[in-house]
User: Fold this.
Amino acid sequence: MSLDTVKIAVLGCGTVGSQVVRLLAERGGDYAARCGAHVEVSGIAVRDIDAPRPDWIDRDKLTVDADALIDDADIVIELIGGIEPARTWVLRALRAGATVVTGNKALLASHGPELHDAARESGASLYFEAAVAGAVPVVYGLRESLAGDRVEGVLGIVNGTTNYILDQMATHGWSYDEALARAQELGYAEADPTADVDGLDAAAKCAILASLAFHTRVGIDDVAVEGVRSITPADIAAAKRAGGVIKLLAHARRVRTDEGEAVSVHVAPTLVSTANPLASVSGAFNAVVIDAEAAGRLMFYGQGAGGVQTASAVLSDVVAAATHIAHGGSAPRESAYESLPILPASQVTGEFQLRFAVPDRTGVLAEIAGIFAAHGISIAALEQTCEDDTESTLTLTTHHSTRSAIDAALDELTHTDSVTRVIAVMMREA
Amino acid sequence: MSLDTVKIAVLGCGTVGSQVVRLLAERGGDYAARCGAHVEVSGIAVRDIDAPRPDWIDRDKLTVDADALIDDADIVIELIGGIEPARTWVLRALRAGATVVTGNKALLASHGPELHDAARESGASLYFEAAVAGAVPVVYGLRESLAGDRVEGVLGIVNGTTNYILDQMATHGWSYDEALARAQELGYAEADPTADVDGLDAAAKCAILASLAFHTRVGIDDVAVEGVRSITPADIAAAKRAGGVIKLLAHARRVRTDEGEAVSVHVAPTLVSTANPLASVSGAFNAVVIDAEAAGRLMFYGQGAGGVQTASAVLSDVVAAATHIAHGGSAPRESAYESLPILPASQVTGEFQLRFAVPDRTGVLAEIAGIFAAHGISIAALEQTCEDDTESTLTLTTHHSTRSAIDAALDELTHTDSVTRVIAVMMREA
Assistant:
């Protein structure tokens, strides 16, 4: 039988887009055999036709007329990033009934509902494996592999830049600034590292993961975020003493409140016990741990960034999309039927490690412990280490408590003379 | 709109089947929201209606008439295991156009082509996530998440029983027999442990993984198998000295030969370097590492057995199947277009660690090294440790070589007086 040809428009020809174009050409025979259809790049929309490109890019396929390209495509691969013009182009494609494959986490985390609605109305498919954790197939994992289960929590290292920085601080004893400079030298961090180091990139991915895990619309603004700029070598040393390492984690959890179930989502530097499989995920690798009612604990691990690695995720979506076009079927529809409420940042719960500078006199521990007890916070461990004759460091580890209770206790403590200074407040994961 | 009802026949009501039935009842509302169809167990086929069952099993649904149940079902879940009557029933369902969801690795690894052909002829769907590695979604991983990539190798801990036994031997210094007895006490090993400890269970999973990874029909008889019965505490101590641990691994690899590409598949106890993420997979956990051309290295990790955990995998397939029934689409078809030749066991290649007892005299090392060189085997490391005045142990580590070259060198060596005894021959993974 003769196979149909599926026309693909590629929007953007950067590190990921150029690899997608290369693999579509080199592996076209494989894709045809797998999809039952020929996949063919009909054009590549770029801003500047004359910019330097890898030699495998066919310059005749470059165009600045994205609209014309989209209108003639069966599948539109959006890899330009950012909100506009990506949003307008993706909506144009979906409204025309074309399948969209995107790696744009910021767009999904800020305009996901609009995109999903457009897809539903026209019957178009929307794929986004590449938007979270590069080559790690965690979108498939949540949308399909766990479709028969009930997810309780998702915990992930989803930003390679900060993982690399924290890793280097721990390995070499570097300051945050030294580790950032090294990451920038090696190209692991951008000149303006804000999106990575302030946790915004991780927050967008956290929102996408939480949406899938809890069948609830979660946007980036729902995610409480804390980045890694303020992490010090002393924090890392304290983590090591506590038998752990510091990782920037995306936390998404189903929690029970007095009003029923809710979703807790936040990104924060977290003291991870070395017994946790996430503790040994180093360098630019990503890993996502999913706890589900029936499956128990699963982990997905792999390369979280890189042009060719992310291209693998894009192309898995392209093969699924082309197969559906050839044989029927569609991408899983948005599933938001649970519509759980999302807890405000102050209601985030977890275990915390707090470090204080305290004066070296009797009665300090008793007063501090008393204030925590009064705020309903249960203490798991207390350790005092002497720095000099007049000041000690007190490390306090809590059982599960809410961030607001912790903050209230801290507020009261700083009005006593039992605490000289709050050194750090950090979440913990066993 | 009113939803369709999808009728499900469950064949088998053991540890996995009973959990599937429970979750279908308890989570029915979730499944309806996710699939766009009600899923309803129409009956459960069992051998003995009167056997004791968990209290959530509705006895009115039990039947011994599997044929009637199958003929009336939209989805048939086969969880009886073994070849017959599973094969006959699965074929009956597929030929009638019903979707089959199975966890039966033995059936797939020995009659996979027959099942896939039947599915293709009638247009039926065949799902089998639960057949490999319990809750770990590695069938999805290979069939869908890596559909746009080119898999180079799959390396997996896919048998929890042997992983537990090897773990206990390493932790407590136990013999194989002691560790097996403990595993049997705890219910991790069966009274007749043959399928696990001789590597047959792992070989079936290896065949399934290799089929998916290389788009080639691979059956259990294609897989060279070595089990764990002969592993000694001395082997484990030698592994520790070499910076590793022993794991029973399923190896499936795309290899280049003079005639082109081929598939190498085998199951063998393997010395795994502690730097490899598989080294830290302990107890009854399973993990599968996939190396792909674009994605690089991915790892999937989770619980490889257990009724409720495996039920999660079954139910993900049920949700996919019911969604397709409600909205169109089908399971990915068998993809065997690459049809690569499969190497015979003697052509298995890898790095090896060999240990010999050698007499304590000069010239021994030179003679041994000379024989390996003559067989074209490149030596990576040689270490001699003295046991007493007259005998030493020589540990020899090779670079990549074929099993047949190793065997030929060993054969020649045992005809010299440079080797008293071959203690162990083991594969290595960095």
